[in-house]
Amino acid sequence: MSQTIKLSTAQTSALVLMRLFVGWHFLYEGVIKLYSPYWTAKGYLLSATYMKSFFQWLAGESMISIVDTMNIAALLLVGVALVIGFKTKLASIIGIGLLLLYYFAHPPFPGYPQGITEGSYWIVNKNLIEAAALMVIFLFPTSTHFGLERLFVKKQVQTSTP
Fold first, then answer.
1. CA 52, CA 106: separation in Å to the nearest integer?
2. Model pTM?
3. Are 74 and 80 in contact (CB under 8 A)?
4. What residues does 122 pair with on adjacent strands?
5. How does pLDDT run across 81-99, given as a tens digit for each residue?
6. What are the distances in angstroms from CA 35 to CA 38, 114, 135, 162?
7. What angle, 0 to 180 degrees and rounded to 10, lies between the N-to-C axes of helices 64-84 and 9-34?
8. Which residues cross the membrane (predicted)?
9. Residue 122 DSSP SS3
């Protein structure tokens, strides 16, 4: 038995605000990396503390330019999609995948060095929290309320049966 939950205007507004904030963060990170001519993920990947061989492979000479380009493209794509409210489910999935890669490169697991962070974390860090926020955005898509997808949603015509 499936139930439809009707969100209040305040709840929907809070979800839209969260989508916009997460989208802005992704977009900002993508733009900064795009316009920083010397930026590369190589140092981050080589300093990975978990799954080292995988991240070192990504940082290799044959892969790093592809990884850098894909990282920037994914950040920009997710950011733009979330901000404008178009294809937010797809953007959420891509964003979750990207954040999980960041998380597993430097996880806040007991016994692993934390590296340079803004604080001390234990299992949960900001990458995991933002991934959880994207899961909420995926489960409660708000772009039909506020976003470009609203233009493509067919209006339900209510008909009465005699």
1. 10
2. 0.86
3. no
4. 124
5. 999 999 999 999 999 999 9
6. 9, 28, 29, 63
7. 150
8. 12-35, 55-83, 90-109, 129-148
9. strand
Secondary structure (DSSP) of 27-60: HHHHHHHHT-TT--SHHHHHT-SSSHHHHHHHTS
For 142, the token pair is 């708000």
Q: How far is CA 151 from CA 19, 33, 138, 141, 154, in A?
A: 18, 32, 19, 14, 8
- Joined tokens for residue 76: 């920009």
Query: Residue 133 contacts by C-beta under 8 Å, 6 or more apart in sequence?
Result: 18, 22
CA atoms within 13 A on the CB side of 28: 6
What's the chain's Rg over C-alpha atoms?
A: 19
Token pair of 108 as six digits: 């806040």
Report whether pLDDT(159) > 90. no
Domains of the chain, by residue range, sit at 9-152
Nearest to 90, CA basis, from 16, 126, 143? 143
Q: Could you give the angle at the alpha carbon of 133 between the alpha carbons of 131 and 139, nearest 5°?
A: 105
